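Morning!

This is the sequence you dropped in the shared folder:
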Amino acid sequence: MDHWSNMRVRLNDTWGPGAAHTLKTPLGQQPEFWLRPRYLRDAKGNAKLSHFSVDFPSGYLGDGWQGVSFTPMGKDAVKDISGLPEWDSSHRDTYRKAIEAAASLGDSRTLRLEAVVPHLEQGGVGYNTVRLFYVAKAVKGPVADLVVIKTATHKGVPGTVQARQDGTGQGPPQH
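The structure's back. Tokens below.
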């Protein structure tokens, strides 16, 4: 989890209905944020990493991201994304296809950070689960690692709540 500490994430690309509202920024730019580690102290005063908070410049994420805490979950690294060319918008479809085909991104055992981010939608407030995946050595080039964001929108259906995977983003980690 150390690779997440104080990491700056600036997305190259976002797509899908969930990304259209969860990853939309007031400035119309790609999202940018930092992950700040937060700790709990044990009985001996030792700090234990518990979660990550989000910090971002004004306008680079929607208001629903204020105060969001990302919790570490899972244990298995993402292994089914590799060999991507260095990012350039001409490679957008290559990245999207590789990310959409990665079965590990839908597996609850996969190592990730996870949070719930509220957003406004027609009829009130909606909630998205946002998952951050760190993919080591996914890209050929000087910045070999990749951060993938997956969103699942929680929709109210009479008598139940359903979630569906419907938004994605990606970009390199920047320390």
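Headline: Strands lie at 7-10, 13-15, 32-41, 47-55, 69-73, 112-121, 124-135, 146-157, 160-171, 173-174.

More detail when I'm at my desk.
O.
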